[in-house]
Amino acid sequence: MEVIAKSKYIRQSPRKLRLVTDALKGKEVQESLNILKNMPKRGTCAVEKTINSALKNAMQKSPAEEWKIKSISVDGGPVLKRFRSATMGRAVMVKKRTSHITVVLEELERRKKQNGTKG
After folding, report:
1. Where in the sequence is the domain holding 80, given as residue range(s)?
2. Whole-angstrom distance between the N-terminal and C-terminal Cα of the chain?
3. How many C-alpha atoms does 44 have within 13 Å on its Cβ side?
4. Residues 28, 109: contact at Cβ < 8 Å?
5. Is residue 21 part of a domain?
6. Are 105 and 58 in contact (CB under 8 A)?
7. How far is CA 4 from CA 32, 52, 83, in A?
8. Tens digits of per-residue pLDDT, 66-116?
C-alpha cells in the first residue's frame, strides 16, 4: 500500500531542498527522521513535517508498524519576482523561489524466516 503527502509553496528554492531529500530516498521513516534531525540545513524542517504528515496518513489507512520512503521529490513552485536597486539607477530582478514537496511511503514487509521443512 502506498500513501502520499504533499507540501506546497515552501519558501525555499528547490535546489537547496533537493540536497536534503536526496539523502532520504529508500530509507525507513524512523531512520530518515533521525538523519533530518542531524542535518544542518534550513529545509529539514519542511521535509520533516511532510514525512510526519505522510506517516500520520499511513497510520490511518493501515496499522503497519514499519514504513519506507518509496519516493520523495521536490518540484519548483511559483516564483515571486521582486526588484532591487542597483548602481547607476538600474533595477535588478530578484527571484524568490518556492517548492512543492511530495513524499510517497510504502509498507515495509518483514520477511518471514522459512525453515527447510514444508508443512
Report:
1. 2-107
2. 29
3. 13
4. no
5. yes
6. yes
7. 16, 11, 37
8. 899 999 999 999 999 999 999 999 999 999 999 999 999 998 876 544 555
SS3 67: strand
85 in helix, strand or coil?
A: strand
Q: pTM of the full predicted structure?
A: 0.84
Spatial distance between the Cα atoms of 53 and 67, rounded to a whole number of angstroms: 13
In 3D space, the residue among 56, 75, 78, 76 whose CA is nearest the CA of residue 67 turns out to be 56
User: Is residue 115 domain-resident?
Assistant: no
CATH of the domain at 19: 3.90.470.10
The set of cell numbers assigned to 119 is 508443512
Number of folded domains in the chain? Answer: 1
